[in-house]
Amino acid sequence: MSDNRTKIIEIAETMVRSGGYNGFSFREIAAQIGIKSSSVHYYFPTKEALALEVAERYTTDFFAALGDPNSANGATPEKLRHYCSVFQSAFESSGRACLCGMLSNEVALLPESVRLAVIEFVNANISWLKNALSPATGDNKTSAAKTIYCGLEGAMSAAALTKDASWIEDVASSTLASILGEEG
Amino acid sequence: MSDNRTKIIEIAETMVRSGGYNGFSFREIAAQIGIKSSSVHYYFPTKEALALEVAERYTTDFFAALGDPNSANGATPEKLRHYCSVFQSAFESSGRACLCGMLSNEVALLPESVRLAVIEFVNANISWLKNALSPATGDNKTSAAKTIYCGLEGAMSAAALTKDASWIEDVASSTLASILGEEG
DNA sequence: GTCTATAAACAGATAGAC
DNA sequence: GTCTATCTGTTTATAGAC
């Protein structure tokens, strides 16, 4: 695996998380590495191919950080707090919003393959949360999962806008308090 | 007020809500009206000026739909349900995400005046919610307001991605149930 | 108020030399 | 694997005719 190939994906991720799908270009990625845009095309024939690989790598890394929701280690409260902390460090290490949260808003201009990758990220988050929630949540498991996920995505967006990580902390603790409270 | 001026703002709003700040162009707006891009420049000298007016009009219309949070008509539960319904109809009438939620993610590429307009929208939402929340919420009023706002923004984004309005319904009812439950 | 014409920059993408 | 050169189309924006 070439070093430049990895650099391209990393720079592209940063740029997408700053300006969305239309916010990155082969020319600017190349300039940041010190090569020409045609060399970027050597690794990724099209913009769609590059964006897709960025989304897939982001999803892989994100779920690697999350770990197994069915793990015997830790009960529901610990698992949910861990989930929130992954969002928090995703923001704090970059000062940027979630890649897939960013792309979600841009459905209309995404190539089909990228759109499907983003939907996959969302579905995987809901699944993870449903597995982490204890049976006591009952019939509302899906709603609870959606509420946690959407709250954190919205909080990351507000945190990026205001450059203030406390949005994520506040939303996380408030949301978890009510959901865990209901579980007793 | 010229008819075309209004059309320009309306089309620009639709386009920004589809593809963000980089997702609209003078040429395409002109084409949809049936004029030339130079005629769009007659009304709005720069892209920044147009985007700013779009954001301001969106904010004005949004808070007109919300009404006065201090109104004597209706208690906290009714006010909060009304707040959620405004997000819901903003999605259902367009199938698109929130204009300011969209732009929030794109801070890095926004002109300063537009960035400030988006922050103003966010702050105004938090203020509205804090006024609508009953004193019983106590010290956590700000966190509760942030949680409601971020949850709905995230839900609008997911709804736009999946073309499924139920995200907003689910997050709204789940979030309100816990906050109103805490208030007794 | 709308047009033509144009500028200067940038986009994604390709062909072919080295 | 990286380069030069180039194509085609797009962007924001301006000058000036009508």
Per-chain topology:
The structure is a homodimer of 184-residue chains.
Chain A: H1 3-19, H2 26-33, H3 37-43, H4 47-66, H5 76-92, H6 99-104, H7 112-132, H8 141-162, H9 166-183
Helix pairs in contact in A: 1-2, 1-4, 2-3, 4-7, 5-8, 5-9, 7-8, 8-9
Chain A binds a DNA duplex (18 and 18 nucleotides) through residues 2, 4, 25-27, 35-39, 41-43, 45-47.
CATH topology call of chain A: Tetracycline Repressor, domain 2
Residue windows where pLDDT falls under 50 for at least 5 positions of chain A: none
Oligomer: homodimer
Q: What class, by secondary structure content of chain A? A: mainly alpha
How would a textbook summarize the main sheet of chain A? none
What is the first-to-last residue Cα distance of chain A? 50 Å
> Count of helical segments of chain A?
9
CATH class of chain A, named: Mainly Alpha
Largest Cβ-defined interface: A-B, 47 and 47 residues
Strand runs of chain A, count? 0
What is the mean pLDDT of chain A?
Answer: 95
Overall helicity of chain A: over 70%
Per CATH, the superfamily of chain A is Tetracycline Repressor, domain 2
Q: Would you mind describing this structure in some detail?
A:
Chain A is mainly α and 184 residues long. Chain A has a single domain, classed as Tetracycline Repressor, domain 2 (Orthogonal Bundle). Chain A has nine helices and no strands. In chain A, α7 (112-132) crosses α8 (141-162). The longest helix of chain A is centred in the C-terminal third of the chain and has 22 residues, at 141-162. Chain A is elongated and about 55 Å long. The termini of chain A are far apart. Chains A and B meet through α6, α7, α8 and α9 of A and α6, α7, α8 and α9 of B. Chain A binds a DNA duplex (18 and 18 nucleotides) through residues 2, 4, 25-27, 35-39, 41-43, 45-47.
